[in-house]
Amino acid sequence: MKKLFAEFFGTYWLVFGGCGSALFAAGIPNLGIGFAGVALAFGLTVLTMAYAVGHISGGHFNPAVSFGLWAGGRFPAKDLIPYIVAQCIGALAAAGTLFIIWSGKAGNAINNTQAGAFASNGYGAFSPDGYSLASAFIAEFVLTLFFLLVILGATDKFANGRFAGIAIGLALTLIHLISIPITNTSVNPARSLSQAIFTGGEPLSQVWLFWVAPILGAIVAGFLYKTLLQNHDAA
Q: pTM above 0.85?
């Protein structure tokens, strides 16, 4: 249960910090943090929670990461469902908290006909810069694949594990710097689901892509790392 609570709190912090920065701080005139600030916020959530609770649960905070670690031989299949449930509950709890805070400002209402509404992900008309379904799928697949390669490499028993959290957090920052204009950046099915549920409409109907592409990318990364990159011969 401690592992599941760690995943709950870690995913809660990721969604609250990352999506919260997009909702509250990104667009304030003259003082807003913009895309770069949101990207850094997501990276910082993972970095801080990796050191706070990563030693308890492994610090997944993301269903795609759990699948990728399973594919890489680092995580047992029997724990996949409990971890994913804990991650989704944590993400939904964070989205609920964000909604309560966000609704406290007069005039705030979710417009689910607008790209990026309530920090949701999307493609086509719901991509921040109008990218197609195919572009969104490729971006989410490739970026999650490389995110898992970083995670698997940084946490390898032959790597310097003290700096793993920094490498992983910076990787997530880079991922957001690349892909916020494409999909508003997911690479995390729980993060996408939580915002889509509160947004509704077309963003909710598009959420399938932000489960399928990241999970496929993560699984491919796991098998690639295990077969091509992992050092099986080192003592």
A: yes
